[in-house]
Amino acid sequence: MSTSGGVGRSETSGGDWLMATLVAVGLACVYWWPLLWGGGLVGGDTYPYFLPQKQLLAEEFAAGRIPLWHDRTALGYPLLAESQGAVFYPFTQVLYRVCDPHTAYHANLLIHYVLAVIFGWRFARSQGLQQTTALFVAMVFVYGWFPARSSLEWSIVGGLWFPLCLWFTDRLIRRPTIFRLMLLSAALGCHLLAGHFTLAFITQLTCLAWSLLSGSDRTVAPVERPVDSRWAAWRLRMRPLGVTSLSLVLALLLAAVQLLPTLELQRSSQRDGQGKVFNPGYGHLPPVYVTQLLASWWYWHTPELIQTREMLQTPLQSPADTNAVEAHFYVGLLPFGLCLCLLNSAVRQRVAPGIRRSWLLLTVLSTFYAFGWLVPLFRHLPGFGFFMGPGRYTIVGTMGLSLIAGACFEVLLRRRSRSMRSLVLVSVAGLTFVDLQWSSRAVSDAVVVSNPPWQSLGESWLGSELRRADEKFPVRVLAPGPNVANLFGVSSVPQYLGLGPAAYFGESFQLSGPDGNSQRPYPDSQLEQRLRGLAVTHLLTTDPIPVPASSLQLVGSGPDEFLNRVWGRGGAPCFLYQFRDPPARIELEPQQPTAKVRVMERRPGSLKVLVEADQPGQLVVRDLNLPGWEVSVERQVEATRSGPVVDAVDGHSAGMGKLGDSATEGLPSTVELADFRRVVSIPAGSSVVSWHYQPKSVWYGAILSLGTGLCFLLWQMGSVWRGCGDRRRA
User: Fold this and answer.
1) What is the pTM of this model?
2) Alpha-carbon gap, residue 335 to 548, rounded angstroms
């Protein structure tokens, strides 16, 4: 085996691509077989986090709107800005327009597993590995790191781009061209559009580090002319880093439509760098737990040790919390044994320097950072303080160990016959796949079931009751299992968000459920006042309230086909209570006996209300107030209950972040900012009040993204035109 990096052997044919595709599809079908027949994931963040987002996203797409705001989780939040909705991600745009949310969610997962293996294979080929060995590397990388995190959609959706960006980086630094620069920029940009930027940030750091390490490797950055000074030599070594950095800047511009809204939300979120709610050290890899590389499913990954969280009782662990999913770092016993062959000098000398030195160094550095020790220091650096989960850096170590295992495997098989190599490789790969499958399923907090709860959503008596009530007045339910009740199509509290408005993480939004052993009325007067202030109309519990407050009435009880399956409760009953006098989410203050408030239109990102008031007042909407909401008030000469409002004679508009905007004389326009209230002054008589969520950050970002994309397109068209001209002249 050549030690030059194997550049010549990185060439691939159409047959190689076909073989890689068939292997990738076969692995996905074997591992995720139940998903092909209508099954689905249950557990972890699947139902509390991702499916509520995808459901609303699909509904907005079907209505021809861009889903900027999610109005069902708590009092609402910016869906695009939160990022994990991946609104502008190409796969999201296609799948959630043509499939139902459940099918699209799992089809997206399968597609990304297939592509991740293909791209992992192609990057391994670029590092000089042979066809079959590169496939082995891709299998170890993908099925070693991602299935344990199957409840975290962002892991495979973002992880797909990790090997692809590395491959494009490798191509760019070997022979820099404008086209290759644009390819890497497009890949990095799509990675950012996929949302949840932790893996995107790790990918960017790895590409930059790979460029820096490869810059000193003459086989990657060949010397084109004699170097006559140290300065020239330094510039030559830094050139790969420079072109990769340029592609990263272009990627940020391409993804500006996602990044600018997220940056706007970040400034008013729990990750603003000032609060104590967000801990970037959460999700680390305890140092002793790294021995799972050797002691996996037969020790660390046994159910007993996972449930007892024994790994947190080990020495030198970070003070932050973690869990077995975030700390999972395993490539299989046989691949790790192959990595240990690198200790043999004869094997080591035959392994390419780029793998032997660069990827071993990246593996060591990423694993050390995963311990969480450096988080208190690095959190002050740009980017690091925004992300939690240092254990996620083990994706770099998993790639490194996979490449080292593949390179050592080639060395051991180099003198064997073709049939012997094939037999040994298939045997090792098969045993490793079973090993990885066993270990990942022991660690994962999600399982695949053949009859997923989603199929029972239409049979839920709770969903029917809440939707029926929501047709009369806006419903908001206090429920256990945050966000799950969103799937009934109604608002629910409390929230479960990774990047959420800071107001949801303060003491005023800590809502406690009933205590089954308490003999005091629930809710007490203080909690009831807070619930009414949040416009909570219903309470959903899994046990009967021992002493319901006099203001509550029981709507119904019984096993729920949907929730019981999501929560694994068998036939246990659920209980739905309602306030006898439900608080209004939209009301006029001060109250006027003959005033009327009628909702004309209610959508996630807009609200239109007809108000007939005897005297000037304030219209209050008990929803989250964030920059980007704009309101307009139109005073009407005539309005009817059944028809559209006509004859607007004057009006005004005011952004929610502005106080005291000028308006038509005699028409107050004060807009009040409060965490859980949107308030606008209205005149006497008939008026139409319209709220719309239109953050300027989205439009500024869209201009940057479209402008950059247009420049890419024009440049490529110009290149094609010049090429055609050259051929005509020839």
Assistant:
1) 0.91
2) 59
- The pLDDT assigned to 274 comes to 65
DSSP-derived secondary structure for 298-312: IIITSHHHHHHTGGG
Q: Is the confidence at residue 232, as pLDDT, over 80? A: no
Helix (H, G, I), strand (E, B) or coil at 477: strand
If you write DSSP's letter for every residue of 107-130 in order, what string do you get? HHHHHHHHHHHHHHHHHHHHTT--
User: Is the Cβ–Cβ distance between 509 and 481 less than 8 Å?
Assistant: no
pLDDT of residue 720: 65
Q: Is 589 helix (H, G, I), strand (E, B) or coil?
A: strand
In this predicted structure, which of 9-13, 141-145, 226-230, 314-318 has the lowest mean pLDDT? Answer: 226-230
Q: Is the pLDDT of residue 214 over 90?
A: no
Structural domain boundaries in the chain: 8-225+235-271+283-449, 454-509+521-579, 586-694
Q: Tell me how far apart the alpha carbons of residues 402 and 163 are, in angstroms, rounded to a whole number.
A: 12
- Counting every residue written for the chain, the total comes to 730
Q: CA-to-CA distance for 301 and 329, rounded, in angstroms?
A: 11
pLDDT digits (tens, 9 = 90+) for 308-355: 888 888 888 888 899 999 999 999 999 999 999 999 999 999 998 889
Helix segments in 381-453, DSSP class H:
394-413, 418-443
Closest CA to 48 of 432, 689, 481, 498: 481
Strands 596-603 and 646-655: unpaired
Taking the C-alpha atoms of residue 51 and residue 59, their distance in angstroms, rounded to an integer, is: 12
- The CA-CA-CA angle for residues 343, 349, 351, to 5°, reads 85
CB 395 within 8 A of CB 363: no
Q: Residues 321-324: contacts with CB within 8 Å, 24+ apart?
A: 321/279, 321/282, 322/282, 322/283, 322/284, 322/285, 322/286, 322/372, 322/391, 323/283, 323/445, 324/148, 324/443
- The enclosing H or E element of 691 equals strand 685-693
Query: Which CATH number does 586-694 carry?
Result: 2.60.120
> Which two three-digit tokens encode residue 108?
């997206």
* Average confidence (pLDDT) over 529-539: 94
∠ at Cα 274 (270, 276), nearest 5°? 65
% of the chain surpassing 70 pLDDT: 88
Cα separations in angstroms, 486 against 70, 231, 269, 395, 645: 10, 61, 21, 33, 32
Residue 339: which of 294, 428, 402, 292 has the closest Cα? 402
Distance CA(229)–CA(544), nearest Å, equals 81
The 8 Å CB, 24+ separation contacts for 311-316 are 311/286, 312/286, 314/286, 314/287, 314/288, 314/289, 315/287, 315/288, 316/286, 316/287, 316/288, 316/371
Contact 556, 450 (CB under 8 A): no
**φ and ψ at residue 678, rounded to 5 degrees:** -115, 120
User: What is the pLDDT at residue 228?
Assistant: 57
What is the pLDDT, as a whole number, of residue 715?
84
Residue where the block lists tokens 């990096």: 5
Instruction: Determine if the peptide bond prior to 523 is cis (ω within 30°).
Output: yes
d(CA 31, CA 361): 32
Helix (H) or strand (E) segment spanning residue 643: none
pLDDT at 324: 93
| Average pLDDT value over all residues in the chain | 87
| pLDDT tens column, 52-92 | 999 999 999 999 999 999 999 999 999 999 999 999 999 99
Each residue's pLDDT tens digit, 622-650: 999 888 999 999 987 554 444 433 333 33
Dist. CA 3–CA 20, nearest whole Å:
25
Q: Reply yes or no on whether the pLDDT at 220 is more than 60.
A: no
Helices 197-214, 360-370: axis angle to 10 degrees equals 140
In the three-class reduction of DSSP (H, G, I as helix; E, B as strand; rest coil), residue 331 is classed as: coil
The Cα–Cα gap between 547 and 514 comes to 9
